[in-house]
Amino acid sequence: MIAEALFFSAILFTIGVVGVLTRRNALIIFMCVELMLNAVNLSFVALSKMHGAALGQVFVVFVMTVAAAEAAVGLAIVIAVYRHFGTVELQNINLLRG
Amino acid sequence: MMLALLQAAAEASPAAHPLAGTVAEYVWMLPLLPLLGFVINGLLSIVPAYHAGPEDVSHDPEAGHTDMAHEEAYEAEATTFHRRWNALSSVVGPLVVGIAFVLAAAIFLAMRAAGPSLETAGAFVRTYGSWMPAGELRINWGLQLDQLSMLMTLIITGVGTLIHLFSIGYMRTDPGYSRYFAYLNLFVCFMLVLVLGGSYPVLFVGWEGVGLCSYLLIGFWFSDESNANAGKKAFIVNRVGDFGFLVAMFLLWANLGTLDYAGVDAAATRLVANGALVTAICLFLFLGCAGKSAQLPLYIWLPDAMAGPTPVSALIHAATMVTAGVYLIARSGALFALAPFASLLVALTGALTALFAATIGLKQWDIKKVLAYSTVSQLGYMFVAAGVGAYSAAVFHLATHAFFKALLFLGAGSVIYALHEAYHHTHREEDAQDMRNMGGLRRHMPVTWALMWAATLAIAGVPVFSGFFSKDQILGAVYGAARHSAIGELRLLGIPGSAILYGIYVLGLVTALITAIYMTRMMLYTFHGANRTGEGERPHLHEAPWIMTGPLAVLGVLTVFGGWLNLPAVLHALGPEALLDRWLAPVVARASATLAGGEVAHLSHATEYALIGAAVAVSVLGIGFAVVRYRGPLLAKREAEAAETGLGAAVRQAYYVDRGIGRYLVEPTIALSRKVLWRGLDVGLIDGVIVNGSAALMRGVAWAGARIQTGNVGNYAWIVAVGALVVIGAVAFR
Predict the structure, then answer these.
(1) pTM score > 0.95 for this model?
(2) Which residues of chain A does B713 touch, with a Cβ-Cβ cutoff of 8 Å?
(3) I need a surface site. Which of B223, B348, B636, B710 has the fewest CB within 10 A?
(4) Which of B705, B717, B721 lies nearest to residue A98, judging by beta carbons?
């Protein structure tokens, strides 16, 4: 049971990472980050069940809280970026180039 | 045991010294008085520079003032201002040196009063604080008073006072009047430190100090570049000598562990007589002396030093500073007594210098250059005497030379002053120092003429004049040493020392002959024959004011009667004999006796008369030859410049020594500095590689670093991901 749960979590996380690295749209990258967070949540829950301890589930609640706040801030930034540049395609946004 | 001896010597002298409690306790005031004068005159030379300038006048709201009027008002104001301060300098400058002379005379009388007890008591040493305590090295600010330093002090302050007084007239109109007196006072201060210092390092302070003042005064009119260059040349050539002096001091410290005279004298016996070490010490010391006292091959700076004001040439480059080398050798007699070989080289160098410089003097046109080469030549005589161990003869000639050469220089200054004033009246640009512009000045300046003839007869060695006695004593000492002395038993390149000494005696005689010729030539060209100054200038030629002729007259008396300081035994009918020999005996007699090989040889009266006869014959012959030789050219208005060839041209150009040094030493050094050190090392390596190179390296690194910062979030994400993988991998596969 635990093996399947961790395997699924790893796949989910990898999909998130690949999405972050390959996609160009800020919104999709953002969603991929959420995917990574939830992959971690899944493994927390699974391991919590295996050990019979509640600590992992407590962490999941924390992660979800932080993710909600992060989503609020992150989406606000995306909106600001869109207002400024008229696009959310990240390869066009490189003002910090050295 | 040696340490105990040193301590005993150090402790015994202050406790029971016959001079303790007398006026000699004020010896510290001697150098401080001129220093006070330096401070006052130095301030006076700075203060007027800050007074209200023409800008303040132009703020005057009153209209109608032209710029010219402002200028004139400013200049008038500045002149009165300067004149007021100049008066103060005229008083302070000579006064401090005069007071020092009075004090020195008082100390001298105290030493006379102390009588024979002084001869056994040794030097009177006073310490005023610690200067360089480092490990075992203890160097104190100490002054030492003995017969030798007393005599030097009297000469320096006495002749110094006269030259300060002369300067009042000579420098009257100079804009740098106060500055001049400041430098001159500082010079006297350092010169007194030099002769009164109780150890080699303190002497060295004075040694370098007088070098500095010499540099400042040679380049006194520094707005003319050649004057500034002459000052630099003097300074740089002296560095070569000072290197030798320093090495000698290092060797003394390393081997004897002490640097004060009392300690060195006591510890010198530890050195192996005739050994390589003591010979090296003496030769390095002599290198220093050759620099300061303008001996071969380091004499080249002295003729150029004539760029300074003439009284400076009289004081520094004739009477006092250049004799410091002779003083140093007499002071180090205990060392030279152990190194007869070094002494022989000193005498030989002196004799060669004397002849070499005298021949150059034959062909000079600049009156001061004649005197400069004459000074080099006479210094050579002093080194001959010091080399054969006749230290009191060397110091005697030093004293008489101070009198007659100061008189000659001041007389020349008086002549130059007269010519300069005359040319100033008619606004003609002519060389006031060129003897071809002189002639017949006897009728215009009789006092200077008479006094300079006295000095000329003295330097030529005509009997009764001071130079006769001192030169005769030197020649007699050389002859005596050639017959029997420790030096005479040496061999140099297979030639016996006594043969070399006979050769030196002959060189001395020849030099005396040439000296008589060139000095008479100078006098004839300057004062006799037809006047060549110019029709317009002739009415303006007149004798110098009394403030200048007064010191000349005093020096004239000393020049004529200076010989009575040290009459030879054969002429005891004239007065008390050998006063100076006996006065200096406690300081130099032991070293003189050692070098003489036991006891100073006494020549028979017949021999002495023969030597005196030879010297007199030579000088009279020289004067006679010059009178005959220069009778014809004097009648010509201006001698036609015939093209000279061979030896004549070589002598005229001072044997091309300056040109040779310029071509083979100075130019290669400058080329090396310019091409290798400047273009190669400084611009190429330091600026190019190190400074600009490091900047370029940093710029390259920054450029590479900047390429990583794409500003694209995706790239950063990749880097983070790869970094995370690496960390995880490192943790997993540890």
Answers:
(1) no
(2) 29, 90, 93
(3) B223
(4) B705
Class of CATH domain A2-91: mainly alpha
Give the Cα separation of B267 and B2 in Å (integer): 7
- Chain B: residue whose CA lies nearest to A17: B721
> Which whole-number Å values give the CA distances from B370 to A90, B199, B678, in the listed order?
94, 36, 40
Phi then psi for residue B496, to 5 deg, are -65, 145
**pLDDT greater than 70 at residue B468:** yes
Structure confidence at residue B15 (pLDDT): 52
- For residue A33, give the chain B residue with the closest CA: B717
Q: Which of A20, A24, A95 sits opposite B711 (nearest CB)?
A: A95
Residue B51 tokens read as 């007074």
- Residues with Cβ within 8 Å of B430's Cβ and at least 6 positions away in sequence, in order, are B419, B423, B437, B534
Residue B382 CA to residue B400 CA, distance in Å, equals 11
Of the given ranges (B177-181, B379-383, B402-406, B531-535), which has the lowest mean pLDDT? B531-535
| B156 vs B148: CA distance, rounded Å | 12
Give the whole-angstrom CA distance, residue B367 versus residue B413: 9
Residues of B whose CB is below 8 A from A17: 721
Q: In this complex, which of B705, B708, B710 lies closest to A94 when CB atoms are compared?
A: B710
**Which residues share a beta bridge with B143?**
B126, B197
Query: Residues B256, B264: contact at Cβ < 8 Å?
Result: yes
- Per the CB < 8 A criterion, the answer to whether B400 and B159 are in contact is no
| Residue B636 neighbours by CB under 8 Å, 6+ apart | none
H helices of B276-433, in order, are: 276-292, 301-304, 310-314, 324-331, 333-336, 340-361, 367-387, 391-426
Of B219, B218, B211, nearest to B235 (Cα)?
B211
Cβ-contact B18, B147 below 8 angstroms: no
Q: List chain A domain ranges.
A: 2-91
8 Å CB contact between B348 and B504: yes
- Core vs surface per residue B460-477: b (16+ CB within 10 A) or e: bbbeebbbbbbbbbbbbb
Q: Do A90 and B721 touch (CB under 8 A)?
A: no
Which tokens hold the place of B402? Answer: 């101070």
Query: Between chains, do A98 and B707 touch, taking CB under 8 Å as contact?
Result: yes
For B659, other C-beta atoms within 10 Å of its C-beta total 11
**Chain B residues with CB-CB distance to A93 below 8 A:** 711-713
